[in-house]
Every structure is written in structure tokens, then in C-alpha cells.
TrEMBL record, chains A, B:
It comes from Streptomyces griseomycini. Gene3D superfamilies: Tetracycline Repressor, domain 2. Residues 33-52 bind DNA. This is AcrR family transcriptional regulator. PROSITE patterns: HTH_TETR_2 (PS50977). Keywords: DNA-binding, Transcription, Transcription regulation.
DNA sequence: AACCGAAAGTAGACGCCGCCAACAATGCTG
DNA sequence: CAGCATTGTTGGCGGCGTCTACTTTCGGTT
């Protein structure tokens, strides 16, 4: 017998997201097609429209889950008891690890193409990560471990280094200098001590 | 009379690139369509195929011209006679300025989706910019202005800060902290002196 | 248990798109 | 001026995202 599938899929929304993430990882965002995803899920070409009003809506949902996982990864890598340098190193490791594992997803997350409503949720996700950095900065300042000055500026500086490096890491699939052999340590050290000789 | 256009356009290739860059700037890469560009140029929908084998080929050409202009901008902003700090500040300004003016283009340039042959040319363009940073680092080391160590690592660190900040700048169309009011100076200072108090 | 509205899936159509092949006009070069 | 490469044109293919109208199923109410 033709083993006919049930009329209702059960959890199509999740299946679509999962399939989308697989495709994203394997073939890049350009190869993502709602119809293809529908086919993979064994459902008609218009079914995805029931769960995502738009292709962009699906991408937004994907990005959102990315932010959630990134925030979790950073949170669980953070140990507030540590002195600044090892603490930052651990965070940097976590961030670069995420970037290496989810290059395309990270790109999606940083794409500034979300519709306004998802953008709010997005902003929330961003806040969870830059907020963490911000707290680290604030605490380090309180302990006198780093220079005074607008903590927001310092946060931006740290964020910029991390993000720039993450982009490089995600960019060349090869070797990714930074996440290997003491690369991270060296960079955090540089960030803390500066380029000028002391 | 219908003012019929000549059968040959004259310089369709350039017209397509120019139109593409306009669309890129105004509506983003997602809104780029070869057929639309053809319409704007007043030619038939298949004409672009004579000049770009692919849509990707057009994007590659665009990215390539971006690298060229970026390299020029950096070169002309660089003054080797300056001490490190102002020299870096000038370069950072130039890079961030480019990022602000050509956000979508920069994204295209960093996209890792080019076909292999264009990728070579791309690599050449990249080399012109990171090579410049590399030379700045090497000369600064020679003058004892910065710390010893693998110059490549230092170059990566500087590049990461610049690129991360450029992404932020390009990301939020508003205010872009860094390129305004002393933001750049402050960051370069941070980069040189580090976060730790001296 | 029967009903009924909402939720979830289907089928079909529309107008885009990129790309390809076959053909036509033009320009260049011998 | 003949012939060939270049650069255009038309038409068509299949895929895509999205919309509308229809159908099936689920779940809560009486």
C-alpha cells in the first residue's frame, strides 16, 4: 500500500526550520527554497505559507533561534569569578566556536533585512550578548582591572574585535587562525595590553 | 517617431554595473535582477548574458571594483611619514568611511560565494588592503613603536577591529558611533594602549 | 456524541526570475 | 566588400515565492 502520510504533518514548523538550517549549513542561504523544504518535509508547496508568512519570516525565525543559542553558549562559557583576562578568553573562545560552527547562520543573524517586528526580537537577542560583554566591562572597571571611560565605548571595542575575528574565522573554512593554537589568548592579550610596548 | 535606440548599446557592460550598484545601494542585493537591469538599460532580457555568464559573475565584477576603490581610498589616506597613531587613525577613518558609504557593496565583497576564477582576483584585491596594514605594522615594529611578535598576528588583530567596527557602522544606518566625534581616535588609542590601566 | 469554527494542508495559477538556444543586426578586419 | 566574431533579439524552459479557493482534520462546546 502507498503508505499515505497523515494529512497533518504534526510539527511542520519545526521540520521546516530544521531542514532550513541543514540546507543553510550545507549549501548556503542562496540555495534555500521554501518549495524544496516543503518537498523534503513531504508536504505541498504552499504548506510552508501556513507557518511563515514569508520566506523572510522563516529566515528571521532561524536568526532568532541563532541568537538564542549564541546567548546560551556565551552565558554558559562565562565565569564571573574569573579575572578579566581568562574570562574574556573563555568568552572569545565561545564566540569564535559558534562562528566556526554556524558561519552561514551568523551571517543571517547579522543581515539587516528583517521586517520590523522580528527586528524587535532580534534586538532583544543582540542585547543578551552585548549586555553580557557590557557587564563584564562594568565589573572589570569596578575592580580596577581596566581603564576608566564610557563603558559602552569599551564594549563596542571588544565587540568589534570579536566580531571581526569571527567573520574571518567563518570566512575561510581552512585553519581559521584564531580559534587554533593560542590564537585567542594572544589576541585577548593584545586587546588588554595594547600594541605599544610597555 | 519612436526614437528607436541603436541596435548596439555602446557600453552595456558598464551601464549594467552602474545600474547594479545603484540598485544595490538603494534596495539591497536581494532586489537585484538581471532582467530588471536590462530593462533599465533599455535592452532585452537576455542581453546581460553577453557580458556576464552568470548573475554571480556580475556580482563578482561589482565586488572586484569595490576592492579596487577601497584599496585606492586606503592608499590615498595613508601617509607613511606619520607616527603610528595618527597614521592608523587616518586609515581607520578611510576604511570606516568606505564602509558607511558602501555598506551593501562591502557585504558583497566579504561574501564567500565567488566562483574560483574571480576568487583569485578577489584575493588580489584583499591583498592590496591587508598588505597595506601589514606594511604599516612592519614599519612600526622597525621603529619600535609597537610590540614585537609575528606581524601577521598583529595585522589580523588590527584588521579584526577595523572590520568589526566597519560592520557595526554599516549595520545601523543611524549615527554610527565610531565614525563620528572622536570615536575613531578613541578606538585607535584603545588598540594601541590596551584596556588595562598603565 | 454531534457540531462547528479555526487551524493546517492541497491544488492551481500568476508573474517574476535565471538561463539557454536559435536567430538577426552590427562592427571589424582581411 | 566578404566573412566572422560580437552583441544584440525573441522565445521558451523550469523553478521560485506568493495568492486564492478549496479540503481535511483537530479541538472545544453544547
Amino acid at each position: 500500500m502507498p503508505e499515505s502520510r497523515p494529512y497533518h504533518h504534526g510539527d511542520l514548523r519545526s521540520a521546516l526550520l530544521a531542514g532550513a538550517e541543514r540546507t543553510l549549513r550545507e549549501k548556503g542561504v542562496g540555495a534555500l527554497s521554501l518549495r524544496e523544504l516543503a518537498r523534503e518535509a513531504g508536504v505541498s508547496h504552499a504548506a510552508p505559507g501556513r507557518h511563515f508568512k514569508d520566506k523572510q519570516a522563516l529566515l528571521d525565525a532561524l536568526a532568532l533561534s541563532g541568537y538564542d543559542r549564541l546567548a546560551r553558549a556565551l552565558d554558559s562559557a562565562d565565569d564571573p569569578a574569573l579575572p578579566l583576562q581568562p574570562r574574556l578568553t573563555a568568552l572569545a573562545r565561545a564566540y569564535l566556536g559558534f562562528a566556526a560552527d554556524h558561519a552561514e547562520l551568523l551571517e543571517l543573524m547579522y543581515a539587516r533585512k528583517h521586517d520590523p517586528e522580528s527586528a524587535e526580537l532580534m534586538a532583544d537577542g543582540v542585547e543578551r550578548t552585548v549586555g553580557l560583554i557590557g557587564r563584564v566591562v562594568a565589573e572589570a572597571q569596578a575592580r580596577g582591572e581596566i581603564v576608566e571611560g564610557d563603558p559602552e565605548h569599551l564594549t563596542i571595542a571588544i565587540g568589534a574585535v570579536l566580531h571581526g575575528l569571527a567573520t574571518f574565522t567563518a570566512g575561510d573554512k581552512s585553519a581559521a587562525y584564531a580559534s587554533q593554537h593560542g590564537g585567542v589568548e594572544e589576541l585577548v592579550h593584545l586587546l588588554l595590553h595594547g600594541l605599544k610596548p610597555r
